[in-house]
Amino acid sequence: MKRLKITNDHGWTPRKLRKQERKIKDASLCVRVTAVRLVMEGFLGKDVAKMVHLCRQSVSLYVARFNEGGLDHLLDRRLPPGRVPFLTEEQQQESRQLV
């Protein structure tokens, strides 16, 4: 199995990442930073996945995102826009008034 590699183009060290982990309130984002830090410290991806209760593929995805754009890119959560509502905006307003 190939070892995951972190490009250190962004100037982050394991110590700085640990400090950042403590500041993050959202648990899922904290897990991302923890996974990257553990890989940076030399753990294998499969071992990191077991430690933080993720699948190995998620760990490699987080490392790839960190390598692309640093911590900002890792913590960016692009959520899909969601399903298109069945009711138009006018119909929603009307139903609110009725209720």
In short:
By secondary structure, the protein is mostly helical. The protein is built from five helices and no strands.
Question: Could you characterize the architecture of this molecule?
Answer:
Pfam families: HTH_29. This is Transposase. This protein has 99 residues and is an all-alpha fold. It has five helices and no strands. Helix 2 packs antiparallel against helix 3 and helix 2 crosses helix 4.
Termini separation = 59 Å
Q: Any idea what the radius of gyration is?
A: 19 Å
Q: Which geometry do the CA atoms define?
A: elongated
The whole-number mean of residue pLDDT values reads 89
Total strands: the figure is 0
CATH class of the domain at 14-75: Mainly Alpha
Q: Which class of secondary structure composition applies to the elements?
A: mainly alpha
Summarize the main sheet: none
Report the helical percentage: 55-70%
In DSSP terms, counting alpha (H) and pi (I) runs of 4 or more, how many helices?
A: 5
Query: Low-confidence segments, ≥5 residues, pLDDT <50?
Result: none
Output the CATH topology of the domain at 14-75. Arc Repressor Mutant, subunit A
CATH hierarchy: architecture of the domain at 14-75 = Orthogonal Bundle
Hey, roughly how much beta strand do the residues contain? Answer: under 5%
Helix-strand pattern: HHHHH
Organism: Anoxybacillus ayderensis
Protein name: Transposase
Pfam families: HTH_29
